[in-house]
Amino acid sequence: MKLVWYSNPTKISLRFVIPTSIIIKMTDEELLSKLEKAIKTCRKCRLYKNATNAVPGHGNSKAKIAFVGEAPGYNEDQQGLPFVGRAGKLLNSMLDMIKIQREDVWVGNIIKHRPPENRDPMKDEVRLCSGFLEEQLKIIKPKIIVTLGRIALEYFVKEAKISKYHGFPISYKGRVFFPLYHPAAALRNGNIENILREDFKNLPKVVKGEIAVVDLGKEYTKEKAEGQISFM
Ligand code: URA
Question: What pTM, to 2 d.p., does this model score?
Answer without folding.
Answer: 0.88
